[in-house]
Design goal:
Length: 326
Amino acid sequence: MKLPLLTILIIFLYASALAQQDSIEEVPITKVAIATIKIEGFPDFLAADGRDVWITNRKKIEKISLGHSTPVMTVAVSQPCGAMATGFGSLWVANCTDKAIYRIDRKSGNVIASIATGLASKYGELSLAVGAGSVWVLSDSAGILTRINPQTNTIQASIKVKPFSYCAAFGYGAVWITNCGQIQYHRNGEVTALDPGSIQKIDPKTNQVIATITVGFAPNFLAAGEKAIWVLNEGDGSVSRINPDTNQITATIDAKVSGWGGDISAGAGTVWLRGNKTFFLVAVDPKHNAVSKRYGPVCGSGAVRVAKNIVWVSAHDINTVWAIKK
């Protein structure tokens, strides 16, 4: 049977795209890093603060700055967990010991407030969001998004969402959260879930869910930026691109970063994926919705954050943080 010319052309272009993806050379992180910093303990989740970053560690959080080989500030927190957020002159940190959100002055390092919210993830695999004059955290695995008023350091609202929602991001006038589908982590790095999972969009004006979007398998961390919402699907290693105006998926990118322990950040003209068992770091070009670079070597789990034009990457298994200038 003869195939129509248009069909042949589509197949050719698809095959060419696959070939291009497979031909991407892995670049050693040491060749492109402008700084390599060794930090004892368990340096993990990151939050941007100008060109600097804050990082979670054992029983503390620390601030890292270019030009310094050691942290420039250390704040005691008994068990910091998840991705932190900055806003309202403060750093907001989830503490897994007492399941509270700590507000820390970014200049002095003083703990301003502790807000008892509860935390949805017992493993600390979560992320906070700042936007619409509030701080947002998933506070109960049954499906509760808690809104904190930074003027009073109290809970302003509790919003019902889908169960097993852990990560939040703010962008394009809305709060976006992942429902991971009761994600389960395995020792070999594999991720499974009882259902595929989805993304929910919350309108901060009404505190109501206004969209539920099916994405890839076992979505967890997400990022807002580069004209889209980007979702890392830990179950299949793909990235879903969502148009924040239409709430539709406009691209699904096979980034091959499946497995637990991943992270995602959008900025400096790129979407950055922190892998674990497959690739160490992957750069996605948002103009073409395709992987543009891969970095190695694989060195366990960690995080990635864009701080203006600096990309910070952590690897807690080898106590190292790198900075890349974009």
